[in-house]
Structure to design on (689 residues):
């Protein structure tokens, strides 16, 4: 696939980072606001979708390897199950980090407030784990689908220019 | 040690999940590390399942609440209904989990060597362990919504595994067919769960069972649940996915798929006996199960007799064997509200069904592994290409004889005992029922005589001169199941008394299942 015009590429280059930051915001605020690991992860995976569409598959597949996202997926899954095992002193999935201080365990403030990020214990950790997993999984699906397009087109297009999409 | 004993139900799910997620990490250290990880996780899961079974038979129903302050705290702060994720293990669940874990271990031992010449094994191991987790989850959950979740986990993992040899168009077709049917089935289960949630504000099986009164919504939910679960265990009008999926999956996976289909059958037991039980009222459901059972038995076996592909032949036998369980279950359900008839023959029908379920999973897994061993050694599953392999593969032939005698119901073997219990009890309902079952049994024997004669006896084929016995790990996997079949055959009284009878009693005792959750708390 050929890259799109320079305008689209420039906008996507800038925009992709904002999308990624917003996705991370949705992931880490999962326990306070709508969204969470899966939704935020899907937003972050849009990063790869924007780059694939604007720059074309040849360039993008040269930039990243599927193994990179494969590692993401497994780090996420292992963190999730480890968070489950953290509570095994009481019960599996017990929220043992809540109210223990540190990054995840501050006390919930009383009365109306803007929401305190560090209060939810293992739930935030699990949100992050699911987020990492979904970023890896969805980006990998996108890359494989793109490779699949290549795979189908290859025999007919060898030596010729790649089939364009919108031009 | 005691602290671990408390967490056994959670560990039974957490171990295979951890194994699945960490399989690619183990694969990073080479194929040997991955194989050690694969076999040790399945073996540990089997040990945990055994421990859980012992715990249940010693101290009754085990309840585990995920994430609570105490693992038995089902009703926190005086609530009337449970809110957290709930695992409830009674004797039936424990038996199913133990059986499934054995099948998973045997399939894993077999797959270690039979799959080694293929690529993508990290993903294979991950999906295999995920399928194990989904199956065990369906069997020990005490919560209808989580039953749906685990059903989906098992479906997705098995679609991936059925299509593992994706360069074969047949495998992709089988997987697609299975995926389509599983999705429709899972949606039906989800709609049924929604009905229950709307009516009773809970999805805990015990909570629903304690308040259930048969109305229109409950009848609709029952139809959805029974048809979806009967489809998942391959009953006749909905059996078309079974031969494709069982024949195209790698042999080790098919062994596990048999146990997974029995988890769906367990769901059917749970729905009919625990969820609805005596409040079913009419005998329509019982007769529907009996008729589906008879059709499955007869159509399955007549389709099996004419097959030339070994695995396809065995897959059609799975359809026919599930019919026996449905027949036993239907007879027990028919007389459930009549204590006199229940004591006379209903309880025996239920025990026969549960015992046959156990037997079937073991010998059917073994048969599929033998078919896989034939394909591994001789390179073909077509009976016309095989012949005289008994001389080249004497141990595989001996294992096949054990399994074939068990499935055909020859007297010293376990299949005979469980079939006899079903014949005797269904005779009391109508004499025609055991007649169909016996004809099926004879046709089963005929088709396995055909397999034994063409594959293992007869003159040696020129193309099969170089065939050797399969590697030790594969024989180990088969031998594990053969040992279980032999133990069940040689000690029928002991196995009925310690495994089957408590399980059947647990199914009939609705009050205990409800009381373990709703009467619990601290």
């Amino acid at each position: 696939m050929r890259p799109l015009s320079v305008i689209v590429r420039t906008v996507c280059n800038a925009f992709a980072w904002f999308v990624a930051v917003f996705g991370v915001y949705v992931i880490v605020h999962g326990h306070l606001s709508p969204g969470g690991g899966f939704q935020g992860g899907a937003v972050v995976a849009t990063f790869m979708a924007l780059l694939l569409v604007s720059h074309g598959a040849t360039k993008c597949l040269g930039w990243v390897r599927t193994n990179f996202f494969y590692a993401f997926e497994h780090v996420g899954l292992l963190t999730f199950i480890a968070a489950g095992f953290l509570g095994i002193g009481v019960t599996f999935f017990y929220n043992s980090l809540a109210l223990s201080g540190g990054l995840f365990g501050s006390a919930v403030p009383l009365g109306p407030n803007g929401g305190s990020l560090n209060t939810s214990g293992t739930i935030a950790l699990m949100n992050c784990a699911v987020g990492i997993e979904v970023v890896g999984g969805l980006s990998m699906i996108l890359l494989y689908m793109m490779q699949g397009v290549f795979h189908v087109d290859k025999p007919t297009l060898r030596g010729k220019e790649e089939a364009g999409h919108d031009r | 040690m005691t602290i671990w004993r408390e967490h056994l139900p959670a560990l039974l799910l957490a171990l295979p999940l951890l194994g699945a997620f960490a399989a690619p990490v183990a694969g990073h250290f080479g194929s040997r590390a991955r194989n050690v990880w694969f076999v040790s996780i399945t073996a540990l899961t089997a040990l945990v399942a055994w421990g859980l079974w012992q715990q249940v038979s010693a101290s009754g129903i085990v309840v585990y609440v995920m994430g609570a302050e105490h693992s038995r705290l089902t009703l926190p702060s005086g609530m009337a209904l449970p809110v957290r994720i709930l695992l409830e293990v009674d004797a039936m669940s424990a038996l199913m989990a133990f059986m499934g874990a054995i099948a998973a271990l045997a399939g894993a031992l077999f797959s270690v060597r039979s799959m080694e010449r293929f690529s993508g094994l990290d993903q294979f191991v991950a999906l295999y362990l995920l399928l194990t987790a989904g199956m065990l989850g369906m069997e020990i959950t005490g919560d209808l919504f989580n039953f749906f979740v685990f059903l989906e986990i098992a479906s997705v993992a098995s679609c991936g595994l059925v299509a593992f040899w994706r360069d074969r168009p047949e495998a992709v077709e089988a997987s697609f067919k299975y995926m389509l049917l599983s999705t429709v089935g899972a949606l039906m289960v989800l709609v049924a769960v929604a009905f229950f949630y709307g009516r009773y504000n809970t999805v805990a099986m015990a909570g629903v069972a304690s308040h259930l009164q048969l109305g229109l919504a409950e009848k609709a939910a029952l139809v959805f649940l029974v048809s979806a679960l009967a489809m998942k265990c391959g009953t006749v009008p909905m059996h078309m996915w079974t031969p494709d999926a069982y024949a195209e999956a790698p042999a080790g996976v098919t062994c596990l798929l048999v146990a997974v289909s029995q988890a769906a059958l367990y769901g059917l037991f749970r729905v009919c006996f625990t969820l609805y039980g005596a409040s079913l009222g009419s005998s329509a459901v019982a007769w529907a199960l009996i008729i589906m059972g008879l059709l499955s038995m007869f159509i399955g076996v007549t389709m099996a007799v004419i097959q030339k592909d070994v695995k396809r032949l065995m897959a059609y036998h799975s359809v026919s064997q599930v019919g026996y369980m449905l027949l036993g279950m239907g007879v027990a359900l028919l007389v459930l509200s009549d204590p006199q008839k229940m004591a006379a023959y209903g309880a025996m029908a239920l025990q026969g069904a549960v015992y046959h379920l156990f037997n079937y999973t073991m010998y059917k897994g073994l048969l599929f592994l033998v078919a896989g061993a034939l394909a591994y050694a001789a390179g073909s599953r077509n009976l016309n290409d095989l012949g005289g392999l008994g001389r080249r593969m004497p141990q595989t032939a001996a294992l096949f004889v054990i399994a074939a005698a068990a499935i055909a119901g020859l007297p010293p073997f376990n299949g005979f005992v469980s079939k006899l219990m079903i014949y005797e009890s269904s005779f009391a309902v109508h004499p025609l029922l055991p007649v169909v079952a016996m004809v099926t049994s004879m046709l089963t024997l005929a088709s396995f005589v055909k397999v034994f004669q063409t594959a293992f006896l007869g003159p040696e084929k020129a193309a099969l001169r170089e065939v050797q016995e399969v590697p030790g790990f594969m024989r180990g996997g088969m031998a594990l199941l053969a040992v279980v079949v032999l133990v069940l055959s040689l000690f029928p009284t002991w196995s009925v008394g310690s495994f089957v009878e408590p399980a059947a009693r647990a199914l009939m005792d609705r009050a205990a299942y409800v009381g373990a959750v709703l009467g619990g708390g601290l």
